[in-house]
Amino acid sequence: MDDGTRDKIQQIVDSKPVVLFMKGTRLFPRCGFSATVVEVLKRSGITDFEDVDVLKDPAIRQGIKEFTKWPTIPQLYVNGEFVGGCDIVRDMYEKGELETVLAPTKAD
Amino acid sequence: MTAQSMVPSGFSTWESVPPGRRSGSPDLTRGGRGRNPFVMVEPSVVEKRIREGVEGVTHVEVTDLTGTKDHYEAVVVSPAFEGKNRVARQRMVFAALGELMQGPIHALTFKTYTPAEQES
Asked: What SS3 class is residue A4?
């Protein structure tokens, strides 16, 4: 990954408290795993998040995997920290842990 | 090194077919969604890689979710997960699978436990 892509990804990660790198958009997810995370965010009351469609940009699609050191998409970032992919986010939601992670983003 | 010698066992790939016997467009190997339709991974290969690559594994169960050999569920139990969060645990399994995650396995869903967690 070149520095330009890294900088671009860092800017996206910092652009909002909640950022989701996904396939498709929140309105039209193009992968079941991405759709699941969108649904979890919706149920958690997160309406204002950045959805980044990696299918629109091959550099970001590949770059985000290296940036996070995580080989799959979706990837959820909260306040600049990587939280996890679909399995982890869904599991945290079911155990009520995601609420704790997301709480600071709602306070603002 | 020939292209074929670079293919891990358990794979059949476009490159493993002699050029004269190939059919269809070579572009298919770079499939529209970044997938190579000629690469499939046997569940036994996934299980073996996890057993060999994740420290102290006591139990591995790999399920082919779709019957297409590219959507898997893995249940992995290891004392090495102790004290590690979900992201760290999953990274350990991803590391064991290495290049298999770069295309051959399209989707992998996880359950990671320590032996103590599995019992509870």
From this structure: helix
